[in-house]
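Schema walk-through. Below, the input block comes first and the output block second. Nothing else is stored per chain. Lengths vary across the set, and this one has 189 residues.
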Amino acid sequence: MPKLWNETIDAHRAAVREAILDTTARLVSEGGLRSVTMSQIAEQTGIGRATLYKYFSDVEAVLLAWHERQVTAHLQHLAGLRDQTGTALERLQAVLEAYAGIARQRHGGELAALLHQGGHVTHAERHLHGMLQHLIAEAGKAGDLRCDVPPAELAQYCLHALTAAANLTSQSAVTRLVAVTLDGLRPVP
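--- output ---
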């Protein structure tokens, strides 16, 4: 097959896959996890059930793929903040604020239990931990953050502290939580 033909087929497959993911996420948000069926997904996406099963084996597989896409987008956003200009402390603060905002939007209950069982979550957590560890080490070398605790431990502290953002009701509360978290990283006088 010519290269153009293959590219067209690949683009079509990618578009169908994205439509399946978006439709499933919408159906779950409208009716709940247990209400969604493969028949509904196929109908709402505008494809046949046989086509849907070529892409995904069940609703759970669709949701895990959707979540992996979301997690990847979040990591890309955080990496973009990490790579901006500014001091390591400024970049760290931007990453922490964005991460806390993401944590505030997390799903709860049965959906969270399903989505967070994938290996993609463990990979993302490791990646984020490494990102924070690097920024903390860089800011420590600049004298902006404490150096008496290893950066890996401080990164873990940040991640655990910011899980509290899931229960916050406003962006100003998230900002305060990040400020308190950063205060814990400051050099001891």
